[in-house]
Amino acid sequence: MNANARGDFSNIPVLDVSALYGDDQDAIDAVANTLRGYLENIGFLYVVGHPIAQANIEAVREASRAFFALPEEDKLALKIDKNFRGYLPFAGSTIVTSSVATISKPNQSESIFFMHEVDADDPRAQAGRPLQGPNQWPDEAKLPDFRQTIERYVDEMTVLSRKMVGAISTALGLPAHSLDRHFDEPTTFLRLLHYPTQPAEEGLFGSAPHTDYGFITLLAQDDVGGLEVKNKNGDWVPAPPIPNSFVMNVGDILARWSNDVFVSTPHRVINRSGRERYSQPFFFDPSMEAIIEALPVCVPAGEQPKYAPIEYGEYLMERIDKNYHYRKKLAAEGAA
């Protein structure tokens, strides 16, 4: 890694990942090699060349618009539950765990979360394991095909995410499937977000400056814009929408896993476009029970890892419990 290059960027690069869907190893290695440079120095890139149809991406966006246009009582009927699935009302989170800014005002957005589907009678749910339970779905009569649209998209995004896990392994000089066992039961989140136009107010953001918690994020944007990424000079670099692309970024757990070879870069959303903004980030993370410890290939000879081993589920729950207002209420009710 060129230490001087880390964080020195003025735009977000584009990577064609079509080779990851083939069997030409030289082409796969070339993609992985380029990917490594982007993840070391920027932590962000646009992913293109994937086979996910633009129509399927747009279908999720239209489903999102339809959901957020529902009457408030219909949305609140799906209010987010203890398993982190459902509707989070406007201004329902404040990123107090941000390592890049002191945040005191809630994010100016509303959202609905869909995680990996776990039936109510699944042993994981029956045992009360954290974040294990069924998703909450809108009334089919009011939003026909909503669930089918979301589940198709999650399936496609999961395939793409697994391709990227393989490319990341290869980029680190590991066998392509070396990390797969940590994703046997991946923790996935599809978050549909609605950002109203926000007033110009100090310290107010659609999404306050932060780094993501997990492994990787793959974000589909609409055409409004507003996402910005912070470079080492402290400048906020726009990540404007590119059709049929996903903005991919490193999360904190991947940075930790790689012993900071890969960088989890601060980013934010400010929507002063005069239009409503809709986005759909997909978070692909390890199994809740996965133990994350620095990969030996990422620890220089004679040095110790920067981070102690940690169970991913414990790490994740600490952040969720601190940043989401409803979690504090649940904790208070449980202590009463």
Automatic annotation (TrEMBL):
InterPro entries, sorted: DIOX_N, IPNS-like_FE2OG_OXY, IPNS-like_sf, Iron_ascorbate_oxido_reductase, Oxoglu/Fe-dep_dioxygenase_dom
Pfam family, one: DIOX_N
Residue intervals of the Fe2OG dioxygenase domain: 186-286
Entry's EC annotation: 1.13.12.19, 1.14.20.7
Catalytic activity of the protein: L-arginine + 2-oxoglutarate + O2 = guanidine + L-glutamate 5-semialdehyde + succinate + CO2; 2-oxoglutarate + O2 + 2 H(+) = ethene + 3 CO2 + H2O
Domain of life of the native organism: Bacteria
Pathway connected to this protein: Alkene biosynthesis; ethylene biosynthesis via 2-oxoglutarate
Cofactors, names only: Fe(2+)
Annotated keywords: Ethylene biosynthesis, Iron, Metal-binding, Oxidoreductase
Family designation: Belongs to the iron/ascorbate-dependent oxidoreductase family.
Protein name, UniProt field: 2-oxoglutarate-dependent ethylene/succinate-forming enzyme
Native source species: Neoaquamicrobium sediminum
